[in-house]
Amino acid sequence: MLMTDIPGAREELERLGLFMHVQVRELVSRLTPEARVFPQELGVPSVSDWHEPLQFHHTMTFRGARPETVSPAEMGQRAAKALAAAGWAVEEKVTEAHFITGRHDGVVVQVRISKISNVVLYQAKTPSLAFHTAEVMVKPDPVRTPDTLRPGYVLCYECDGLGWCSSCWGRSWIPDVERGRRRCPECHQDRVCPICRGAGEKHAATLQYYERGYYPGLSGE
Ligand SMILES: [Zn+2]
Ligand SMILES: [Zn+2]
User: Fold this and answer.
1) Residues 123 and 201 in one domain
2) Cα-based torsion angle of the residue sequence 15, 19, 22, 23 in order, rounded to the nearest 10 degrees
3) Which one of the ligands is nearest to 211 CA?
4) Which of 18, 100, 207, 216 is deepest in the core (most CB within 10 A)?
């Protein structure tokens, strides 16, 4: 795998994540203070896009309960006010629920206040950042070559000595236009050649009859 770290990217995402975490906690404590189920730590970023180079972000999803004494519209106003006071650009939308969206520094927080139940749903995410440049796929060196075969062995007819799965080259995944990556259909994440199990070679004397067909030069025994 060949790739170069992007200097400061991890630190920048950490900074944005911590900012989001603090702000959302603050917002929740103002709007639905009884709510306790809350991640205390920011945690590790998750992959937001599996295309190379991988993109990472932090996300939060959290449910609070609107007190009966506060109407959905009033709750929406409180959310909008609190976000605006903290310097967020605020957008309000009322459809089947009250949606209050705040944007700051690329971080987006959305508060969804149900009209038909007391659920207040908080969702927040940081922008997505890549930590390294796109990975250049490099075919690994074969584990066996004609020069390094053990006596009595022949190169694996499937991988020609590579040892690794010839589809994914040992990564367990192959690039996918839509999703970025998908599980290797050849080795099913075993990473190694299914015929030689990674050895790169086959023992000539114990080859199956049909396998000998791959080696026309092999003398019969
Ligand atoms: Zn594979
Ligand atoms: Zn093989």
Assistant:
1) no
2) -170
3) 2
4) 100
- Contact at 8 Å (CB) between 105 and 124? no
Residue 175 structural domain:
153-212
> What is the CA(215)–ligand 2 centre distance, in A?
14
Kindly report, residue by residue over 127-144, the tens digit of the pLDDT: 999 999 988 888 999 999
**Are 157 and 73 part of one and the same domain?**
no
Over residues 104-119, mean pLDDT: 96
Please tell me whether residues 114 and 200 are part of one structural domain. Answer: no
Q: How far is CA 157 from CA 3, 59, 141, 184, in A?
A: 32, 47, 16, 20
pLDDT at 194 over 90: yes
CA 210–ligand 2 middle distance (angstroms): 16
- 143 lies in some domain: no
Q: How far is the CA of 194 from the centre of ligand 1 (A)?
A: 9
Task: Calculate how far, in angstroms, residue 202's C-alpha sits from the geometric centre of ligand 2.
Answer: 8
Q: How far is the CA of 137 from the centre of ligand 1 (A)?
A: 14
